Amino acid sequence: MRPGPSQDEVRRQNLGALLRHVHVHGATTRAELTTTLGLNRSTIGALTADLSAVGLVSEGAPKETGRAGRPSLVVRPESARVYAYAYSVEVDRLRAARIGLGGAVLDRRDLDRPRGLLAAEAAPLLAGAVKEMQQVVPTDAICVGAGVAVCGMVRRDDGLVRLGPTTGWVDEPIGAALGAELGIDVPVTVGNVADVAAFAEHTRGVAAGCDNVLYLYGDVGVGAGIIAGGRRLTGHGGYGGEVGHMKVVLDGKPCECGSRGCWETEIGEHGLLRAAGRSGARGRDALLAVFDAADRGDARAQAAVRQAGDWLGFGVANLVNVFNPEMVIFGGTMRDLYLAAAAQIRSRLNSNALGACLEHVRLRTPKLGEDAPLIGAAELAFERLLADPLDVG
């Protein structure tokens, strides 16, 4: 028989549970923590004292409640003092942010990214943005880690980007390159952009409280973050969610992955612009121009949007049949397409998805908007702290 957890292990687990609750839900009274965590008042008091001692939370009186009696102290995350760096490597831009415990975006920088820029070239640009932000960081602040969201297939074990067809990356060590440039003694965790965006929306966004979620993210290509049974579903090596490379047309249009007829050739940037007669254009602004033209009555733009919406609904119906989600979230350029062709998407979904799987599906756009990948990348960085709060540097 295996021995049960030691008192120290139980204490660390309870500290992690309390800090995680405050990190996700924000300021919480001791009374609420007692009820939510199922611990007695003296234990909650001891745990909050431990977390306060290392500067992770603070306690104070609540605002006027209007109730008689002594009010319960409120526990708050030390968002300004405890933070992680978050980065998003997208097709046309690089983004960096400093995100505090509790999910607050404290500072941010956006940079243009020339297409074809490799990890060794992107890392110094991101590091430069961080050095700018570090100039206003309080002297007693603690950086607990860094997280990177990347458009591509990320190997879970070491964060190597095995393949990023839309970014032109093959076996690019962005985590190692960025860590070397930053020169800070914290781990750099790398994840797929759709996966970490799904993580963020499930943790503190529109999908909070949903255990089965599909997050579709579009840039040039299309990927998915999948939450199944409340857990991220990333596959054996971390490469799950590459739904943009589902084959939908036998011997169809060539895809940047090297195959043909992939779903993203119909709903991604290139497919939609080609259908609208704008093959020479590229980027999100070009896509938005198509949606605007369609809205103003341009017949070719309208046909392109209808066609892309039809294909989007077709693919979502298949994914709904496979994963039976409670919610489908459309992020990145998929949000723009969804808003432009919602009726077409819903019509195709209703005609193609199984009724039982369709009964409870809600279609949504991200509550966190374009910040979802950054906040998700920060959540990756915070995981180590939340697992063992007393290990904070």
TrEMBL record:
<dbReference type="InterPro" id="IPR000600">
    <property type="entry name" value="ROK"/>
</dbReference>
<dbReference type="InterPro" id="IPR036388">
    <property type="entry name" value="WH-like_DNA-bd_sf"/>
</dbReference>
<dbReference type="Pfam" id="PF00480">
    <property type="entry name" value="ROK"/>
</dbReference>
<comment type="similarity">
    <text>Belongs to the ROK (NagC/XylR) family.</text>
</comment>
<dbReference type="InterPro" id="IPR036390">
    <property type="entry name" value="WH_DNA-bd_sf"/>
</dbReference>
<keyword id="KW-0418">Kinase</keyword>
<dbReference type="InterPro" id="IPR043129">
    <property type="entry name" value="ATPase_NBD"/>
</dbReference>
<protein>
    <submittedName>
        <fullName>Putative NBD/HSP70 family sugar kinase</fullName>
    </submittedName>
</protein>
<dbReference type="GO" id="GO:0016301">
    <property type="term" value="F:kinase activity"/>
</dbReference>
<keyword id="KW-0808">Transferase</keyword>
